[in-house]
Design goal:
This protein is mostly beta strands. The chain folds into four domains: 22-139, Cadherins (Immunoglobulin-like, Sandwich); 147-242, Immunoglobulin-like; 248-294 and 532-618, Immunoglobulin-like (Sandwich); 305-530, Jelly Rolls (Sandwich), CATH 2.60.120. The chain has six helices and 44 strands. The strands form ten sheets. Strands 22, 23, 24, 26, 31, 32, 33 and 38 form an eight-stranded antiparallel sheet that branches. It has a seven-stranded mixed sheet with strand order 3-6-7-1-2-5-4, with no helix packed on it. The chain has a seven-stranded antiparallel sheet with strand order 25-35-27-28-29-30-34, with no helix packed on it. Mean pLDDT is 84; it is low at 1-23. The structure holds 2-acetamido-2-deoxy-beta-D-glucopyranose (3 copies). One 2-acetamido-2-deoxy-beta-D-glucopyranose (NAG) binds next to loops.
Length: 650
């Protein structure tokens, strides 16, 4: 009991004293500045205040009365506390109650008040100062590294161009201050690239790029914030190099294989013309199939001239002037031949060979209608001052050098000479027929047919008719008893007194030289005789648009297509096909050449389309094969074999 009373009394005493003291001395309110400005570095707890936090009290500097007991902060959300450091001097400090995150809040504003100690620590009789505003700014720490906005960047550029900016990359940074959150620099990490990046993330190329050299670049790019903190992860930038748009055919293969027996095969099924948006009004494409190296300029059936004439329904009665040498046809034995196969025999004349055709093989009177046909590959041409080069000549055997009829080449002209016999009246008559044709000197094989329906003479070259550009008249030949000599490869000079000899030799190759008196060949037969079994074709003609005009040459080795509409031209070109109807075609390469011209709407400069060089490869036909299968060993009792023997003997 005594123990309980004593402390109570003590407390009463203490309080009584203080109350009296305060009542006497605490007359003034404490005083602080009206505003403070503070700075705190994030994640730290001390706030640097300006001015420093000091509260003053005018009361006498005795315990409690002149002392400062507390600073109070108004604003519950402010994560700060103010602590009194020295009650006598009134100094205090402001600090964070929990770590301050600048990224959450950059500034704080709140009210602070100072309290004096009044009558004691308990708060009784405390006087408070006026309210002061504290404004705190949180200082940033460069915690965050830049991060790129995209996981990967992509861009495309056209070769040969320099760009100011191909693309812009962008990084950002979570830090709260401009210094640490702004991106001050970008850098390309990948060494030796033809690219550069500026402070804003714009990537440009430092040199002209070439699609042929490299079509794709991958570069790694990093970023730095203004506090020099580097992105933890670089970003990949993919740059595709686009070829500069070049007008031309696209989507075609250099080589198309042709399998024998497959009919018509499309050569460029995916072809299309890139015009680079050029404003064209029409397109004209010429497709050429070059087969000059195959046989006689094209793949043909290799029947003998005789069989072919039968197959083509040619009238009988023609004479082969260049047959394969044999016992009965030995006048060609001294000539040079190129091919071993007698079905496709080629005679080569190098200016020294000629043959006398036996008398009476060809009737002397060819009548008014007759046909001379031959395959000819003329050349090399000996130049402009050249002599005549004779293919076929009928001249005086002796005494004179008169040419009755002859076929010769002179300065790339083909001339047919036909002197009539002096029969009834002595009149001037057509006697020399001249044709000037490129084919004569192009060193390629062509099929020539001369159809005589006197006085008209028509030449067919590869099935196409040509009228002579020049016809000269002459007198008929006076009748005489002199025999004539028919020759091939030169003309017979019978009038040479000492040694009759050949003259006007031919240079080139001949094959299938025939003469047929009494009748001329029809054009149908002529085209059949020279018919080529390979050529260009249009797969499904009817599907060609109406806007497409097309034209084949007779040999079907040249196809010209023309149209105003690009799509139709593209479709038409995909339908261009190669066909070889032989069962066993000559295998090997045939070149293809496509030249294209484009017209534009009144434009001076129109795009030009590069020519295409491609090829058809005719594959070797699969050889017929007989396979015999069976067991490797066959065991039979000897008795049975004997039985067979015995039976056979019977
Ligand atoms: C408190 O402040 C008073 C007055 O300025 C000074 O005399 C005293 O030494 C200070 N006390 C401490 C513990 O610093
Ligand atoms: C051709 O054969 C005949 C006999 O059949 C002979 O007289 C002639 O000399 C031969 N000519 C040649 C060029 O071999
Ligand atoms: C040659 O043919 C012409 C015209 O067919 C004919 O008038 C003349 O009798 C013939 N001459 C001889 C020798 O067969």
């Amino acid at each position: 009991m005594k123990r309980l009373i004593l402390p109570l009394a003590l407390i009463l005493l203490v309080f009584g004293q203080c109350g009296i003291l305060a009542g006497k001395v605490n007359k003034h309110k404490p005083w602080i500045e009206t505003s403070y400005h503070g700075v705190i570095t994030e994640n730290m707890d001390t706030v640097l205040l300006d001015p420093p936090l000091v509260a003053l009290d005018k009361d006498a500097p005795v315990p409690y009365a002149g002392e400062i007991c507390a600073f109070k902060i108004h604003g519950q959300e402010a994560p700060f506390e103010a602590v009194v450091l020295n009650r006598t001097s009134g100094e205090g400090v402001l600090r964070a109650r929990s770590p301050i995150d600048c990224e959450l809040q950059k500034e704080y504003t709140f009210i602070i008040q100072a309290y004096d100690c009044g009558a004691g620590d308990t708060g009784a009789g405390w006087k408070k100062s006026h309210k002061a505003v504290v404004h705190i700014q949180v200082d940033d720490v460069n915690e965050f590294a830049p991060v790129f906005r995209e996981p990967v960047y992509q861009a495309t550029l056209t070769e040969g161009k320099i760009y100011d900016s191909i693309l812009q990359v962008e990084a950002w940074d979570q830090d709260c201050s401009p210094q640490y959150s702004q991106i001050c620099n970008y850098d390309i990490v990948t060494p030796h690239t033809p690219f550069a990046i500026d402070r804003n993330g714009n990537i440009r190329n430092t040199e002209r790029l070439s699609y042929d050299n490299q079509q794709h670049y991958k570069i790694m790019v990093t970023a730095f914030d203004c506090g020099q903190k580097r992105a933890t992860e670089s970003v990949a930038v993919h740059i595709e190099v686009k070829p500069v748009c070049k007008p031309g055919w696209q989507g075609w293969n250099k080589r198309a294989d042709y399998e024998p027996g497959t009919g018509s095969k499309q050569l460029f099924p995916k072809m299309h013309l890139e015009t680079c948006d050029g404003p064209l009004s029409s397109v004209r494409a010429m497709v050429e199939l070059q087969t000059s190296h195959i046989g006689k300029g094209c793949d043909r059936e290799t029947y003998s001239e005789k069989s072919l004439q039968r197959l083509c329904g040619a009238a009988s009665g023609s004479t082969d002037l260049l047959p394969a040498p044999s016992a009965s046809t030995n006048w060609t034995a001294s000539l040079l031949t190129d091919s071993g196969r007698d079905s496709d025999l080629i005679f080569r004349f190098d200016g020294r060979q000629a043959a006398n055709v036996p008398d009476r093989l060809v009737p002397h009177n060819l009548t008014d209608q007759f046909t001379i046909a031959t395959w000819m590959k003329h050349g090399p041409s000996p130049g402009l001052r050249a002599e005549k080069e004779t293919l076929l000549c009928n001249s005086d055997k002796t005494e004179m050098n008169r040419h009755h009829y002859s076929l010769y080449v002179h300065n790339c002209r083909l001339v047919f000479l036909l002197r009539r016999d002096f029969t009834q009246i002595d009149t001037f008559r057509p006697a020399e027929f001249h044709w000037k044709l490129e084919q004569i000197c192009d060193k390629e094989w062509h099929y020539y047919v001369i159809n005589v329906e006197f006085p008209a003479v028509t030449l067919f070259v590869d099935g196409v008719t040509y009228e002579p550009y020049l016809v000269t008249d002459d007198w008929p030949i006076h009748p005489s008893q002199i025999d004539v000599q028919l020759t091939v490869g030169a003309c017979w000079q019978g009038g040479e007194v000492t040694t009759p000899r050949f003259t006007q030799y031919f240079r080139g190759s001949l094959s299938g030289l025939t003469i047929r008196p009494g009748k001329i060949e029809t054009q149908k037969v002529i085209s059949c005789l020279q018919a080529c079994k390979e050529g260009l074709d249009i797969n499904s003609l009817e599907s060609l648009g109406k806007g497409i005009k097309f034209h084949f040459n007779p040999a079907q080795s040249v196809l010209v297509m023309e149209g105003d509409d690009l799509d139709s031209i593209n479709t038409a070109m995909t339908k261009v096909s190669y066909i070889n109807s032989r069962q066993f075609p000559t295998p090997g390469l045939r070149r293809l050449h496509i030249s294209t011209t484009v017209q534009c709407f009144g434009e001076d400069t129109c795009i030009s389309i590069p020519d295409i060089k491609a090829a058809v490869m005719v594959l070797p036909p699969s050889e017929p094969r007989i396979t015999i299968a069976g067991v490797e060993r066959l065991v039979r009792p000897a008795a049975r074999l004997q039985l067979c023997h015995w039976r056979h003997a019977l």
